[in-house]
Write a sequence for this structure.
């Protein structure tokens, strides 16, 4: 039932998941369902702030930056690395 034109899961950051005998709308990873009276479904998918929630993989010596649907990590001044692993410079 998730064929194009046969479901209502068409809002941004939303997908259709087949569930016998029908389907279910769900948010893409990095988004969460929030009540939204302006939406035809009564809810929409809003960005999940992984940095505020602590749901990130940034190193203790890194800063987490929320992005739309995800996050990035940047080592603090005096440290080098990819943000997920930082070491003293």
């Amino acid at each position: 039932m998730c064929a194009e034109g046969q479901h209502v899961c068409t809002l941004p950051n939303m997908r259709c998941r087949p569930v016998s005998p029908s389907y279910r709308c769900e948010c893409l990873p990095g988004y969460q369902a929030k009540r939204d009276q302006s939406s035809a479904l009564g809810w929409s998918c809003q960005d999940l702030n992984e940095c505020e929630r602590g749901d990130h993989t940034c190193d203790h010596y890194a800063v987490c930056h929320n992005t739309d649907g995800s996050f990035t990590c940047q080592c603090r001044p005096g440290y080098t690395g990819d943000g997920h692993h930082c070491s003293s410079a």
